[in-house]
Amino acid sequence: MDSFEGIIEFIAVAESGGFSTAARQLGCSTSHVSRQVARLEERLGCALLARSTRQVSLTENGTAYYQHGKELIIGLQQANEQVSQQQFRLNGTLRVSAAGGFAEHHIAPALMTFAKDHPELTVEVDFNSQMANFVEDGIDFAIRYGELTDSSLVARKLVSRPMMAVASPEYLKQYGTPNHPRQLKNHSCIISNNDYWLFNVDGVQESLKVSGRWRSNNSNVVVDACERGLGVAYMPGSTFKDAVERGRLVAVLEPFWSKGASSWIVYQNRKFLPLRARQAIDYLMEHFADWDG
């Protein structure tokens, strides 16, 4: 059994690219990780890692050993979870990265219900618009809006989110109601992520540059600014649903709204995901299956 010592530490270093990062993930000291890997290399009689002052990389032997060792660890983890799944008591910490009003008003409440159903599970939600570093940050999965650019990640479509343009009744009374997207050049626009807005004009997607005197990447702030009469806003319709229903905002340019983008569940492309992550992802997919925004 001594021959198995150091494999977990080696796999962690190989995936994280450093001893200190691996130590943080494993919850132990850097010296322990370094010592375990060194002992493993000594038993094998070869170097698995090429060390320098700036980085750690796999040697040729290390690459081959990592591939086989990873399969071993995955098999052991799956065996452990298969036994645990029979009891179906999720534990540990589920770490989720999310951002935006949709995450705050819909994802977070759904995960609260999920956490309530699993009292031994701890849930951490990091509201950060930057793409998560799944390895270094220990993120199980992320909720992201729009196109996925990193092909090394897995993305599962959660919901479609068509766009909506709105303004306050007071703003429209003072400045008039735009009847065509091109008229927005004469209006103050509240800008969120970018100042190019896509509209469906005569069946063709048309990108229009807009300008205004209020900009924020927080959707709740955009809604508040719009309700206060600072201009026209254009974001996924679910963002404005409550304000429109209450009469605080009025929909405009409806015939030209874009289909918009989608919200996705994004996670690292690997064979193994912790049981807590798999169950949470399945729960969210089912929860939002009939979501109409």
Automatic annotation (TrEMBL):
Give the domain of life.
Answer: Bacteria
Q: Which SUPFAM superfamilies match?
A: Periplasmic binding protein-like II, Winged helix' DNA-binding domain
GO MF terms here are: DNA-binding transcription factor activity; sequence-specific DNA binding
Q: Where is the HTH lysR-type domain?
A: 10-59
Tell me one GO biological process term: DNA-templated transcription
The record's keywords, sorted A to Z, are: DNA-binding, Transcription, Transcription regulation
Q: Which InterPro entries match?
A: LysR-type_TF_proteobact-type (IPR058163), LysR_HTH_N (IPR000847), LysR_subst-bd (IPR005119), WH-like_DNA-bd_sf (IPR036388), WH_DNA-bd_sf (IPR036390)
Q: Which family does it belong to?
A: Belongs to the LysR transcriptional regulatory family.
- Name the record gives this protein: LysR family transcriptional regulator
Species this protein is from: Marinobacter nanhaiticus D15-8W
